[in-house]
Each structure stands twice: as structure tokens, then as C-alpha cells.
Design goal:
By secondary structure, this protein is of the alpha/beta class. It has 6 helices and 5 strands, in the order E-H-E-H-E-H-E-H-E-H-H. The longest helix is centred in the last third of the chain and has 33 residues.
Amino acid sequence: MNLNAGTVYLVDDDPSMCKALVRLVESQKLKARAFASASDFLDHGAPNHPACLVLDIQLPGLNGLDLQTELARQNIDLPIIFITGHGDVRTSVRAMKQGAVDFLLKPFNPQDLAGVIHQAIARDLRRQEISSERRELERRLQTLTPREREVFDRVIRGS
């Protein structure tokens, strides 16, 4: 599993925070791509490689929670790590219930964030590997003759 193949997408409207996050990510030998708004990130399109999203809650326009909801609506399964200086229990619970990997309050320990980023990239890499294996199995099932498919179905059902 090559975690260095991952990209960390950063969405924060604070240029100094983006710069610091890019430095942190690159120090972990990962690629970083920063966006100043949720709409800029959405315009970029869904990644087709292992990735995660480090996302601020408070953003101009579409906020971080709304972006999380929009990604789910578009079936974009991307591990999300929220960072915020304005967190509360209700917001963090909502983010986690919608599948966030973690919710960190600013100022956070950079090594804590780095650890969570590696977990998120590993999670996305596993998800993509499983998806690839599933596609391969489905492709192989399509090559079975009707009789082979019948036998396969009986074996699977245990009858």
C-alpha cells in the first residue's frame, strides 16, 4: 500500500492556514492541493486516486458541512477531516455522523493532523482497492456461461 501516492485536498479560506497546511502535507511526502472555497473544490472534480479532504467548517458561500453533504449527494466518497476554530458539539456530531474521519479544533497539533491524514489516505486506498476487486469479479461473472452461472449461484446460496 503506497500512501505516498495520495493527494490531500485542503479547503480553507485563510491563505496563511492553507500555506501552513500545504507545508505540513508536503513534509509527509504527500501531494497537496489547496482551495479557498468549497465551490472551487467542487469545480475541480472528483479525484480518481487515493485522496482525502481537510476541510474548514466556516467558509464563504457553501460551508464545510454543506460541502460534505454535496459530496455525498454526488456519490463522491472521499474521507473528510474537519478543522475549525469555531467548533461545537452539535457540529462535530453532525460531521461525524455523516462520515467524517475526524474533527480537529484549531489550533491543533500538526502531528495529530498528519496522523489522521495518513489514516484517511489509507482508508481511501483500501476503498479503491475493494472497488477495483469488485469490478473485476463482476467482469468475470459476465464471462460465465448460463450453466456456469447456475452452478455458481447454487454454490453461493449453499443449495
